Amino acid sequence: MEELKDKSLHLTAEKLAEELQKMDNYTTFYEDLQVLAASYDVSIDDFKNTLVQAVNKGSMETNLRNAVFHWLRSHENNKQMVVREEITSRESLDYLRKAQITWERRIQKSLESMCEEIGIHLSYYRSKADRDEMLQKWNELSTYNTNLERLRPVYAPKDFLEVLFSLHNPNYRMISDDMIWDFTYLPLKVKTLSELRHLYRDLATADLLLGLTTLTKMSCGSTLQGEQERIALGEKVLEYQHAPVCQEFLKLCAPRSLRGRLWTQILGSNVKSSIMLCFTRDTDVLSVFNSSTSHPILTSLKGKPSKEAIYPPNGIIPFHGFTMYAAPICYLFNDPVSLYSTFRAFYLRYWFRLHNISSHPQSILGLCILFQRLLQRHETNIWSHFMSHNIHPIRVVFKWLMKGFSGYLLPEQLLNLWDMIIAYDSLEVLPLLAVAILSFRKDNLLQVNTLQNVDSVLVDLSSLNVMSLLQLALKGPNQI
User: Fold this and answer.
1) pLDDT tens by residue, 200-245
2) Disulfide: which of 333, 420, 427, 457 matches 362 by Cβ 3.0-4.6 Å?
3) Rounded CA gap, 404 and 416, in Å?
4) Residues with Cβ within 8 Å of residue 343, at least 6 apart in sequence
5) 366, 356 in Cβ contact below 8 A?
6) Residue 128 burial (CB count, 10 A)
7) Considering only CA atoms, which of 222, 225, 230, 228 is closest in space to residue 252?
8) What does DSSP assign to residue 308?
9) What is the DSSP string of 360-423?
10) Angle of helix 60-75 relative to helix 26-37, nearest 10 degrees?
């Protein structure tokens, strides 16, 4: 057994070493290691032991631990990929993959129609002179006045929702059209409330969260002192620059002054030379297509008839309200480079799942199913009321889920919510909050019987405290 264990550990170490060499910061890490190996701290007579000691004394050990942490985070959602040593993780369900392809073709057709209508080409070959001029004026581009009146969003969340409603599992016989209310015919496994309580157990049992005192008057000396102590502790956590420790610290919410640095450390959003490219032209974003159902859209390159190019260069066609993924992060950074790097890391880790069709449990489809099952099992009165008046619950909350609640909550409350996404590395907090909000507004919801009136009851969420609602929802049904 020991021999098998050692062999397994050796193979894992080899695999990890190969993967680390593919990371963006490997070159810098390797150069630093060479410098350290040539220093006086490392002895030729006992090279191995003294090198290990030198690595442990400096920051290199922490950097290595962080690299392993980020590698594990990027692989833990697909454990089979590690076991089988496969790089691909494309959608396994044929009908979902085909639905995504059909949806992308629909988007492309709409985009091409709009471009033809306003007389512009999707992509064209830019000459070297044009590229040089663009680089010189890069920092001034935001000051140019551009007429956007003829442009319109390619699609909106409601359009994507209709596509999800049209999904049909070929292995499931639909008894009636009413079956579409619960998506039970889709074989996606989502967590139960008990499993969510276990996942968010630190949040559920915490006696003091910074997010709970945000809306209260800070006249109480003990409250102020508690926040100051939390900031001091956060500064010590950041000194270690160890991502897992920062993630644990974030589970009780981040002090405003430290949130940006904590997010950067946990997300691993290191600044690189390509950071200055705007999102739509950032080809690094194409990496999301290696782990999703989506396929980048190809278009002919103007001036190069035999060539095709991906459009947009990052492969992502934004929907109406797409900028709401980035807007809240503007509160955290003064430096646009740091802001962009964190936004991109957040998108590549989480947001890309919210606008493509996938069987992943944290895809938009999985989150919709989780919301419906939580509402049906733990807020039966609301569910039955909606059913009796032909109000689809998902239509009520879909815009919240697809935009991560951005644009609907107060900025500080939204950032507290996004703290939880990063701290627990899960989007499942979004449907949990959606159910909690409906439960909180239950009395008013039960008095209206149309989708329009339901939307009116929920139009203003500015009075809500996110952390309070999440804690109450996790403590048990009917607690809100």
Assistant:
1) 988 887 765 665 554 444 434 445 666 788 899 999 999 888 888 9
2) 427
3) 12
4) 279, 325, 326, 329
5) no
6) 7
7) 230
8) E
9) STTSHHHHHHHHHHHHHHH-HHHHHHHHHTT--HHHHHHHHHHTTTTTTS-HHHHHHHHHHHHH
10) 150
